[in-house]
Amino acid sequence: MLSHSRCLTRNFGRSLSAIRQGNNGLARRATAALSASHSITLNNNVKSDPRSSVFQIQYFRTSVAHREEVITVNTPAFAESVTEGDVRWEKAVGDTVAEDEVVCEIETDKTSVQVPSPAAGVILELLVPDGGKVEGGNALFTLRKGAGPPKAAEAPKAEAPAAATPPPPSAAPPPPPSAVGPIPTTMPPVPPVPAHAMATKPVSAIKPTAPAAPAAQAEGATKGARTESRVKMNRMRLRIAQRLKEAQNTCAMLTTFNEVDMSNISEMRKTYKDAYLKKHNIKLGFMSAFVKAAAYALADQPSVNGVIDDTTKEIVYRDYVDISVAVATPKGLVVPVIRNVEGMNFTDIEKAINMLGEKARKNELAVEDMDGGTFTISNGGVFGSMFGTPIINPPQSAILGMHGIFDRPVAIGGKVEIRPMMYVALTYDHRLIDGREAVTFLRKIKSVVEDPRMLLLDM
User: Fold this and answer.
1) Which of 130, 274, 310, 434 is catalytic?
2) Catalytic residue at 430?
3) DSSP class of residue 82?
4) Residue 4 known to be catalytic
5) N vs C: which end of the chain shows fewer Cβ within 10 Å?
């Protein structure tokens, strides 16, 4: 019996030592020996029951819990040509955000970068003030992972229906007895006041019924107020202003004009718009005709597609056509680029325009979508413009300005007819492009838009 007790104690000591040292294999072997010598229950801890000689052993298992983890979200990396931006917060401290929900927007010189939340949680601290400058890699905000406090948010919702439910009707208590008699519904006739009494009544005794004079003065002061407000320019607007002024200071800008008869292209669009929409699921517009005509004219006049390198004093001629299409957004004018237009047809151009326009409206344009470009087309006609001179988008050498379509009387075959006409303008850098090339380029666009069959005949 004594030998059995010593063996039991030795095996128990080995098991306890193995557990403390974390040796699972030795612990299992010692536990098996202990179980053979005595009835043992494996549980969570080493315990001794005074009423029983059964020992209980518990294994410890640990796991790292990531709940309530606090993380710091940094500024994403910008494009190569962008170094910093201004922060505009969409959320505040204490707000609960879902995964991939936009927390802030960083406005750069060229575009806006959205910063989503990497996980669901609660915003603890904003490390940059609203409108502050940040660079790539700077800390933006701290986030506590987790779903947030749902109970606190659901409690008011649960109480709302109860509060909205009217209480059950109950018998109204009778009104308390009043010492005042019933209120008459009609007023007794007022006796007339004698004329001599009105004459002898002092003016000071007559009281005004309502203070109308101060209200009239306040209304007059509001109407005559001359107020003004100041709003800080965003980075995109500042960059646009800087580039336009650089274009004026650098280029020798000159503008030539022409007018386009839109009868044929309008008739073609009217005839095939339903079938075109059914087949390609996009609308057929006028922009694709001008983009294709510009690509055709740029191949005919390569100097308009070139640019002067002021650093090396060389002229760079491109054998490809990347056309920038100006798009107006609430933050400023952006010019996404349609690349390799020389190999596109009308449908490819329409799809590219729709895709870039949708990204611009959703503020999802990246720097890569606006980088480059050899020629720009600006369509002010969508806003009702009749005439205007566009400004070159550097480092390009020319820009085409489209305007509104208006019915005007024109001379056709010696007769006056009413035709849908559009004025077009070409602003070009006179340092590189002479008047002959500019006028020939614009007349080529006019002829192709007026008769698209010239594209098929390569004329």
Assistant:
1) 434
2) yes
3) -
4) no
5) N
3-state SS class at 288 = helix
Distance from C-alpha of 109 to C-alpha of 84, rounded to nearest angstrom: 8
Place of tokens 């190569």: 80
Collapsing DSSP to helix, strand or coil, 232 comes out as coil
Q: Report the candidate in 120, 137, 138 with the shortest Cα–Cα distance to residue 129.
A: 138
Q: What is the DSSP string of 118-174?
A: SSSEEEEEESS-TT-EEETT-EEEEEEES---HHHHHHHHHHHHHHHSPPPP-PPPP
Q: Please check whether residue 420 is in contact with residue 262, taking contact to mean a CB–CB distance below 8 angstroms.
A: yes
- Weakly modelled stretches of the chain, pLDDT under 50: 1-5, 7-9, 18-19, 27, 30, 34-48, 52, 60-64, 149-165, 169-172, 176-186, 193, 195-208
Q: Give the dihedral sign, CA 429/435/439/441.
A: negative
Distance from first CA to last CA of the chain, Å, rounded?
A: 116
H/E run at residue 37? helix 24-37
Give the SS3 label for residue 452. Answer: coil
Q: Which residues of 114-131 are buried (b: 16+ CB within 10 A; e: fewer)?
A: ebebebbbbbeebbbeee
Residues 6+ apart with CB under 8 A from 119: 71, 99, 143, 145
Among 442, 450, 378, 389, CA closest to 420? 450
Element (H, E) at 99: none
Strand order in the sheet with 102-107: 112-116, 102-107, 84-89, 133-135
